[in-house]
Amino acid sequence: MDRIRIRGGRPLHGEIEISGAKNSALKLMAAGLLTDGELVLSRMPRLADTRFLGQLLAHLGVEVEEQAGSKLRLHAAQIDDPYAPYDLVRKMRASFNVLGPLIAREGRAKVSLPGGCAIGARPVNLHLEALEALGAEIVLEEGYVLAKAPAGGLRGARVVFPMVSVGATEHAMLAAVLAKGETVLENCAREPEIIDLADCLTAMGATVEGAGDAEIRIQGVDRLKGADWAVVPDRIETGTYAIAAAAAGGDVVLKDARAEHNHALWRALQRAGAEIVEDEASVTVRRTGALKPVDIQTEPFPGFATDLQAQFMALMALADGASIIRETIFENRFMHVPELGRLGADIQVRGNEAVVRGPSALKGAPVMATDLRASVSLVIAGLAAEGDTVVNRIYHLDRGFERLEDKLSACGADVVRESE
Ligand code: EPZ
After folding, report:
1. What predicted TM-score, i.e. pTM, was given to this entire model?
2. What domains lie within the chain, and their CATH numbers?
3. Are 271 and 292 within 8 A, CB to CB?
4. If residue 198 lies in a helix (H) or strand (E), which one and from where to where?
5. Which residues lie closer than 8 Å to 264 by C-beta, 6 or more apart?
6. Of 54, 122, 209, 345, which has the most beta carbons under 10 Å away?
7. Coil vs helix vs strand at 239
8. Which residues line ligand 1 (CB under 6 A)?
9. Which is nearest to 76 in space by CA: 31, 30, 36?
10. Residue 300 CA: which ligand 1 atom is closest?
């Protein structure tokens, strides 16, 4: 198993090109199931998670071809068998998103339930309720969802989500585009990935209005066609490198970043003492002075992203004073705390709040990655620590960060991948 060794204490100077967003790419890939035409996705991040979903799509009978220039061609000319087995779904939760497109296109599907996850229980009840509202008949049997569309196919409906869910909003969209008549989704998530999915579906011939607002209206169509679509730049990767620059010091230009997707983070970083310069297709992050403590609370977009909470906590360990970090989206997303503690951070957790007391003079140590964003928070702490930090179990990192060690090394960091 690979690990990453970071020799800390070097400021970052340079440019980092931001990849396409993992969490958008995965839903766009699922959209490929909705058409017998070709969907060609560009700015596709090459990640373990996109590879896992590619394997599942191939199993369903989709032609999946990686092309030069970060492109992925998907061609679901026909679906062999709308069955997504446990072994292919359990590796990556977002695989569950094939359920809606399979019911919409094939009228039936058998898809494994995704199971729990390190950061919380993460149920899929809202996904299933939305599909049922569209007329799907759903039975749970031996860990699988067995679903059938009514005769004549899914039909448009009004769905009011009792809480905001990114995955359930996207899943409902993926099914409703091929349903008969109008679907109105209320209390929708407003993340940029939702807009990216809506725009790609529109390019495929769907009629979707309101993405990015709480209410989305979809007029179902009989069929969708292929399209070429560029995945939106990854706001979590952008935010991660911005926090890394603030932690290590120096200045970094994040190329291809969409500044407007990270406003909550920019405000927090500015209050912490970093300078943020927003340009049309880049963001520059600079930090020369001392870091100040800032309290944050995670919220659905446009609030502070839960996927940046661990990274911001690593930064706050370096700030001069106490900060409070409240996690409101997932119930168990503080697993990085003991590992940051191994590097010398002083963090106490009470329920869904962590109190971080800085500044800690972090010192390198061997640490263990527990989930994707937790792992990268350890890399950030390692960049600012004295001596060597070795992050083990980095398959978590490979799930969501493309060429992390290359991107950081190009800015002067001493980061190497080692094989055990
Ligand atoms: C997406 O997960 C992202 N994953 C997550 O990123 C991200 O943290 C999350 O949105 C919040 O922004 C992908 O896009 C693949 P939710 P998702 O449904 O859609 C509860 C990363 O590191 N809920 O918005 O699963 C749920 O338990 C990952 O890249 C239900 O109760 O998140 C959570 O508490 C981690 N029932 C809350 O809603 C449901 O049916 C929000 O989850 C669905 C969700």
Report:
1. 0.98
2. 2-18+233-419 (3.65.10.10), 22-230 (3.65.10.10)
3. yes
4. helix 192-203
5. 299, 302, 303, 304, 305
6. 345
7. helix
8. 23, 26, 94, 120, 122-127, 163, 165-168, 189, 306-307, 329-330, 372-373, 400
9. 36
10. 12
